């Protein structure tokens, strides 16, 4: 069995790379993995360690082909706010603006309804959606990449994570290991104080233009309730910013205004949103869609992005795309 390095001090790039390769390849005992992950979490993972873990996962991914301009919109989860499915709605709205979206995700872990649960409640065959992801991305401009289908190395790690029962570095990995190899991303994390560290990790891994965002209240997406910590990653490295709803021409709303429920509840709210219902949920989607369109290079400002996203909803384009996607997966089943 491989011996993992001492975590008392930050690991070097080589030590971190070797450690996570051994963990994912199964050459370390379960007990040693648990001790290692807990120790890292208690100390606080560094950007080098996060990048090394993500690279090890990328090296073992089952990939799909994707358009060069494809993006991903997702969050790390675990924020505890149990909101409606914002990133799922944003993915549909942005794809309706002709930006291919390779959405990486899974079923709910800590929330009541994850993206997959809500899409299934809308009538989508999620097994078929996962199996036909590459085809649907190519033909209709959106897909759902089930993490479990693309990261076989994580199957052994999952029971260990569940036994630990606390946040570890693997809670941060999903957005950094998209199977489509996207180079532009909007990633929400539930730790505003960690945005810069996470952004540095993505910068080490390489990206064309991405945003790491976190609401001040620990929301893993752009929040309408107050300020947002934002890391803009591009050719000039990591640039830290502060955003609020007014930057996109939108009003503020408390987190409670977008509180979600089970999959059926969230699915009904998503359908009403795409059919033109106004209110806090729509505003939250417009705010985050504006950021996604910004990193996709479709707009030059958040305000312009919010307007384009609103148009995609009001013209029925996003709702039509959802219907098309559901029909596509039924045909692929």
From TrEMBL:
Keywords: Amino-acid biosynthesis, Aromatic amino acid biosynthesis, Glycosyltransferase, Magnesium, Metal-binding, Transferase, Tryptophan biosynthesis. Mg(2+) 2 binds at residues 220-221. In the C-terminal section; belongs to the anthranilate phosphoribosyltransferase family. Mg(2+) 1 binds at residues 87, 221. It comes from the Bacteria. Catalyzes the transfer of the phosphoribosyl group of 5-phosphorylribose-1-pyrophosphate (PRPP) to anthranilate to yield N-(5'-phosphoribosyl)-anthranilate (PRA). Anthranilate 2 binds at residue 161. One of its GO terms (molecular function) is anthranilate phosphoribosyltransferase activity. This is Anthranilate phosphoribosyltransferase. Residues 69-318 form the Glycosyl transferase family domain. One of its GO terms (cellular component) is cytosol. Residues 9-60 form the Glycosyl transferase family 3 N-terminal domain. Homodimer. Pfam families: Glycos_trans_3N, Glycos_transf_3. GO terms for biological process: L-tryptophan biosynthetic process.
């Amino acid at each position: 069995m491989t011996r993992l390095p001492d975590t008392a001090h930050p690991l070097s790039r080589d030590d971190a790379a070797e450690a996570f390769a051994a963990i994912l390849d199964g050459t370390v005992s379960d007990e040693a993995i648990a001790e290692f992950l807990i120790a890292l979490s208690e100390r606080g993972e560094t950007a080098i360690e996060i990048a090394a873990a993500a690279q090890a996962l990328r090296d073992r991914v089952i990939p799909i082909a994707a358009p060069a301009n494809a993006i991903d919109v997702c969050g790390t989860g675990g924020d505890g706010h149990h909101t409606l499915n914002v990133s799922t709605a944003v993915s549909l709205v942005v794809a309706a603006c002709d930006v291919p979206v390779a959405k990486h995700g899974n079923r709910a872990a800590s929330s009541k309804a994850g993206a997959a649960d809500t899409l299934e409640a809308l009538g989508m065959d999620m097994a078929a959606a996962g199996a036909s992801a590459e085809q649907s991305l190519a033909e209709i401009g959106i897909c759902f990449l089930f993490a479990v289908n693309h990261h076989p190395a994580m199957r052994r790690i999952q029971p260990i994570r569940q036994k630990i029962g606390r946040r570890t570095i693997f809670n941060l990995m999903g957005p950094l290991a998209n199977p489509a190899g996207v180079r532009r991303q909007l990633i929400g994390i539930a730790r505003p104080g960690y945005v810069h560290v996470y952004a540095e990790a993505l910068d080490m891994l390489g990206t064309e233009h991405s945003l790491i965002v976190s609401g001040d209240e620990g929301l893993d997406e752009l929040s309408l309730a107050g300020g947002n910590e934002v890391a803009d990653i591009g050719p000039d490295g990591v640039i830290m910013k502060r955003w609020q709803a007014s930057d996109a021409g939108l009003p503020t709303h408390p987190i409670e205004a977008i509180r979600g429920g089970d999959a059926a509840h969230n699915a009904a709210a998503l359908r009403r949103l795409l059919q033109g219902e106004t209110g806090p949920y729509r505003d939250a989607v417009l705010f985050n869609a504006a950021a996604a369109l910004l990193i996709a290079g479709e707009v030059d400002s958040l305000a312009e992005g919010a307007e384009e996203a609103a148009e995609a909803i009001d013209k029925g384009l996003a709702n039509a795309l959802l219907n098309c996607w559901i029909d596509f997966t039924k045909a692929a089943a």
